[in-house]
Amino acid sequence: MINLKITVGIPAFNEEKNIAPMIQKLNQIADTIIVCNDGSTDDTGKIASKMGAVVINHPRNLGYGGAIRSLFLKARELESDILVTMDSDGQHRISDVIPVANPIINKQVDLVIGSRFLDEAQDNIPKYRKAGIKMITKLANASLDNNVTDSQSGFRAYSKKILLEITPSEKGMGVSNEILMKSSKQGFKIAEVPIVVSYEGETSTQNPISHGVSVTLSTLKFISIDHPLKFYGIPGAIFLFLGVFFTIWTLQLFSETREIVTNLALIGVGCLVFGVMLTMSAIMLFSVVSVIREK
Questions:
Q1: Can you tell me the distance from the alpha carbon of 139 to that of 162, in angstroms, rounded to the nearest whole number?
Q2: Can you tell me the distance from the alpha carbon of 288 to that of 93, in angstroms, rounded to the nearest whole number?
Q3: pLDDT band at 120 (very low <50, low <70, confident <90, very high)
Q4: Which element (helix H / strand E) includes 224?
Q5: Which intervals hold domain Glycosyltransferase 2-like (predicted)?
Q6: From CA 295, how far away is CA 281, in angstroms rounded?
Q7: For the stretch 120-134, what's the b/e string if a residue is b when 16 or more beta carbons lie within 10 angstroms of its beta carbon?
Q8: I need a labelling partner for 170 at 20 to 30 A (CA). Which of 4, 74, 249, 268 fits?
């Protein structure tokens, strides 16, 4: 059996209290540990370096997506066979690293998500967070070949193929869905395994509303690029239909009363204009994306 080089990547921002015990435990199971010190103002980077981790220092905070991108590039540079990413806030269990990586070790899939929703016994996820994650996951599933249960999990494993073929570009939390959609589009196999996450003390500092809005907008952007005819074309057709309907209604009333119902006329014209704009956007974006893909 060929030994695979397992690298664990940790995006970290001001996590000096958590980083040392994490690295100490990870040293027992990982070949390499990469810590992306994402503009921390504390000693996160210094501690990680002393503990033997490969440290990437961002001079300023670039966000979760920027940290994941740096981890991808460094893991690629180090010729890692598997990259496992996990959060630095103590929510993820070190004991779940190998189970998350196993489907790739066994050459079954290319990307593994550690899902918080496969273990029925785990019911400690805050309700507002669970609702938000499920909504965003449903949105992501619109562009995936196989549905997943937890598109926002940061506990993942990536094969060498993924590391070589995909370079994340999103700077925010939308990077999770970006990687999923790009992987699915390129035919990489995706699987999930159950993990347990601790929410004691509410360790997350991310505002749930800004998080949700950011991820939703990012996901919609990638869906619009991947499926422009559906994303713009279907709404465009609906608005065109409404425009024609209200225009005919307006003309019919005019023929009967010789008066123009201004409200109906404005709705009809507005729907027609908006429908034409959406339809043209669908056609132009589809043409541009097709040309880029051919090249």
A1: 22
A2: 44
A3: low
A4: helix 208-226
A5: 7-165
A6: 21
A7: eebeeeeeebeebbe
A8: 4
